[in-house]
Amino acid sequence: MQIIHAPTISFEAKLVKLSDKLYNLRDLLRRTPIGWDEERVQQYFEWAKNVINGLKGTNEKIENELRLTLAKRNVILD
């Protein structure tokens, strides 16, 4: 639902969502949650990319940080 909903939310909500994704992705790079394997982490990165694609154009600085963070798992933002 986030993939579909993200492009339609307010500018302020997009900023929050971008920031939240950046925090979550960075956290996953530091530590794998209990019960998650590497495949699940990779799936989250791929899913997050799809959400972020719907938010592009909101904040260049955050989006650049997200590009760098995603790239650490070989996920390229469209």
Q: What is this structure's SSE topology?
A:
Layout: H1 2-5, H2 11-30, H3 38-53, H4 60-71
The SSE string, one letter per element, is HHHH
What structural category do the secondary elements indicate? mainly alpha
Content of β-strand: under 5%
How big is the Rg? 12 Å
Could you give the count of β-strands?
Answer: 0
- Compute the average pLDDT: 97
State the helical fraction. Answer: 55-70%
Main sheet makeup: none
Question: Based on the structure, what is the oligomeric state of the protein chains?
Answer: single chain
Question: What is the overall number of helices?
Answer: 4
Structure description:
The chain is mainly α and 78 residues long. 67% of the residues lie in helices and 0% in strands. The model has no long low-confidence stretch (mean pLDDT 97). The chain has helices spanning 2-5, 11-30, 38-53, 60-71.
Can you summarize this structure?
By secondary structure, the chain is mainly α.
Which short descriptors sum up this protein?
mainly alpha, 78 residues
